[in-house]
Amino acid sequence: MAEQAPTIYDVAERAGVSVATVSRALNDVESLRAVTRDKVMRAMAELDFVPNNVARGLSRGKNWVIGLAFMHSPVKANEAEVEADSLLYTDIIIRGVEAQAARHGYSLLLCSAGEEHPDGIAPLRNLTQSVDGWIVLDRVLNVEEVPEISRRTPIVLMAGAGDSDAAFTVRVDNEGGIASLVSHLVEAHGARRFGYMSGLEESPDNVARLRALRDATRRWGGQLNEEDIVSCDWTSGGAEVQTMRWLDRRVDLPDVLVCANDQMAVGAIHALGARGLKVPRDIAVTGFDDIPIARYLTPALTTVRQSSSAMGAEAVDVLLAAMANEPVANTTTMASRLQIRHSCGCQGELGEDVA
Amino acid sequence: MAEQAPTIYDVAERAGVSVATVSRALNDVESLRAVTRDKVMRAMAELDFVPNNVARGLSRGKNWVIGLAFMHSPVKANEAEVEADSLLYTDIIIRGVEAQAARHGYSLLLCSAGEEHPDGIAPLRNLTQSVDGWIVLDRVLNVEEVPEISRRTPIVLMAGAGDSDAAFTVRVDNEGGIASLVSHLVEAHGARRFGYMSGLEESPDNVARLRALRDATRRWGGQLNEEDIVSCDWTSGGAEVQTMRWLDRRVDLPDVLVCANDQMAVGAIHALGARGLKVPRDIAVTGFDDIPIARYLTPALTTVRQSSSAMGAEAVDVLLAAMANEPVANTTTMASRLQIRHSCGCQGELGEDVA
DNA sequence: GTTTCAAAAGTAACCGGTTACAAAAGTAAC
DNA sequence: GTTACTTTTGTAACCGGTTACTTTTGAAAC
Lengths: 355, 355
Prior knowledge:
Chain A is α/β, with parallel strands linked by helices. The first copy, chain A, has helices spanning 8-15, 19-26, 34-47, 53-60, 79-82, 88-103, 121-127, 146-150, 174-189, 204-219, 236-249, 262-274, 308-323, and strands at residues 65-71, 107-113, 133-136, 155-158, 168-172, 193-197, 223-230, 256-259, 284-286, 303-305, 331-334, 337-339. Chain A has 3 domains: 1-47, 434 Repressor (Amino-terminal Domain) (Orthogonal Bundle); 65-172 and 308-333, Rossmann fold, CATH 3.40.50; 174-306, 3-Layer(aba) Sandwich (Rossmann fold).
């Protein structure tokens, strides 16, 4: 193991040329004579030469690496049991980013904050020269910290990372999604009274979804009591507990519980069931995200679909444009779409999507 | 944006010392006089200096980066709909790896194979000098390809990556998990006839689980017909379709359908429901992995739990030991544990785990 | 066989750090 | 104030590539 890798010097010597020539062969410079290139290529093959990307990155000032920063789950309470509960959404984004980056020849450097680095900015600072640009999820950076990093390296914020003049943002159309959800609930199911299961309160997406819900209910003459806004943390486990507490203190339930994401809807439905309440008969429950498993739940979850992988890909595109100094909108909003299934009260072939 | 970052030369000049001294200050060499160190530190702070890790990696031959290679989902059929369906398990491993790597000061370089690089080995080859070691999931490398990479960089294989003398392997105890599952099904529920929903057939984990099931049923005098081994691909969507086909051709169902992972159990239960078959009343269904949502399904899924994040962490530990030339077992087997819920036929408080 | 000039190949500096070795500075003893 | 020796700091080579600039090569024209 750990056998010494050959360098261009070894290749040059074996091929009887200079290192500059080897470098040119590596980089497909057209000014190489075919016979020379062949000589070099043969030597590379014989030595099983692989260029050192780190060295290349140093001298060219470009690493072909995109950094992706995200948060560890803050909830470590029940370690083994809840691991990764709230994470599916972020994970799908990571995949989308990775795939798109790969398509453009970039690798992804993962960097998480949370547990070890409560400030978040330290690892970003340290790695910032290893990377050609950053995609930052969650609340890794405070708004005030963004400029310090973005001064040296372009940043795209997404998935709850908030807004900043010093960075680009890719977000989902929370407003449109919630609006069409509410209009469906009102028009198709006559919903009047709404509840809201909240994600982490500071989260920009949570804030936007709650505000959108307030606006939409007002517009439709519906009602959203403060008592029916249930504080939670994006996780199923948390939602289960919080729903129980909510049921303990409320006798009079709203018509619908709009959850800020799918995981919490799962937990809420579960808790309601444990109290003998059937969804959607006794209360409708909706989600947000449309995680893959949403359609297999019982009842199949009515939710607002966003394509996390498309968002991840879009973030890469924005970042690459920024890196190339091409003009890009400061904020990109990705479409969301109502995905009607059964948990809102719609009926259909079991397992079929209604619309 | 893209403002030029200061280097140690800038710092040295400002502090009125040599670059060697700056480097020593950076690396906490004890032979620096306090007054000199302070001078340097002040200059670094004033310039907002951040060391360039790429350069550091080049000269020290150590990048503090662990590479993680995995496969894209092979199923891209229904693009938007099935995205990431089969992926939760891998994602949790990635998180586990990342967290443990971070704990030891390493970053993670993500590298996926599949779509763009059907061979898998090409990106690994290219990045191999950017990385201090590899963790390889799935079938990114064929067994024959492993030595070519591991000659230069240590490799840990896991999550279905197979075995190789030229690498270390971290695997889950498929045998023990399946054995305890079968013994529970036989002893508590009198199961005699078993079916198996297979993951991708070449996958080592799938092979091991099927073999373990064959062994266990034989040991208990049970029965596993070839006709009841349903070929599938690890995904819910695939399982739904394959279960339908299976139901079309079999009149006489076994007592249990043992699924090679949880996602497929979800799809199978869904398909059974669509045909009017109730789980566990008409047939029991079990999973493998214990993904976070398993306990919220209806019925709550009886499954074999493995801690994917612990496996990821273990892989990092093995890799670090290998990198340090410490002695490590060639294969590490992680415990699995039967998680009894309701889909096997056990009853309990709704939502409570039975045992 | 020269001369001319474009194309091909080589030399050496550079990217931003680390570090072996050499030089300078500081300390203690005389 | 020397001398002797230890500590601290500086110089320059090196990690493995790229590339500006220079030199060599070779083909075409004379």
